[in-house]
Design brief:
The protein is an all-beta fold. It has strands spanning 2-4, 13-16, 22-24, 30-32, 41-45, 52-55, 70-72, 76-81, 86-90, 93-105, 109-117, 125-128, 131-134, 142-149, 152-159, 168-178. 23% of the residues are buried.
Length: 182
């Protein structure tokens, strides 16, 4: 079995969860490993990246991993969404291409999210707390979401649910309204 991590991420640790064997990518992000059974579940992790897992279905075990992205509630994040970004399967459907963003909430309350982008041919969505909030197309390139959250990290997915044509610049703005004691 062999492959590459993303665009060549070095020192990614793999673990065959059945045998317990582990190995690493080289400095070019490549790896080879003999003796990994078809159907084996393999995890991939590296500090600063979201963990990944895949089932070995052939001799090619290439996998993408995403850098961890965090934003403090009350701040904004601007980044690019590429057609080669991650695919995440959620209970509300597939998010691809997609970014997993961790919103750090210092307090429990109501989290408001506003997503804006710059390419009218792309319609993006926000997934949070088991719900998908659909974006608008045409001249209003935005999606809005709100959710009740606890203090800590809240996982948010930002991306497309069905079609995506070109790299786009995205801006996610976050606001948290603290819960009131009654």
């Amino acid at each position: 079995m062999g492959g590459t991590i993303g665009e060549g991420v070095p020192d990614v640790r793999f673990v065959d969860t059945q045998s317990g064997q582990s190995w690493f990518t080289d400095r070019s992000g490549h790896y080879t490993r003999a003796g990994v059974a078809l159907g084996a579940r393999v995890t991939a992790d590296k500090e600063g990246y979201e963990p990944a897992a895949f089932i070995v279905t052939s001799g090619n075990g290439s996998v993408d991993i995403q850098r961890i992205v965090r934003v403090m509630a009350g701040d904004s994040l601007q980044t690019l969404l590429h057609d080669t970004d991650m695919r995440y399967d959620t209970p509300q459907g597939v998010c691809f291409p997609c970014r997993l963003i961790r919103v750090v909430c210092p307090t429990a309350g109501a989290l408001e999210l506003h997503l804006a982008w710059d390419r009218p041919e792309n319609v993006l969505n926000i997934w949070i707390n088991g719900r998908r909030f659909e974006g608008s197309g045409g001249s209003i390139l935005e999606a809005r979401a709100d959710a009740t959250v606890e203090a800590g990290e809240v996982v948010v997915f930002v991306g497309s649910k069905d079609s995506y044509r070109q790299m786009t610049s995205i801006k996610l703005t976050t606001v948290v309204h603290p819960a009131t004691n009654r």
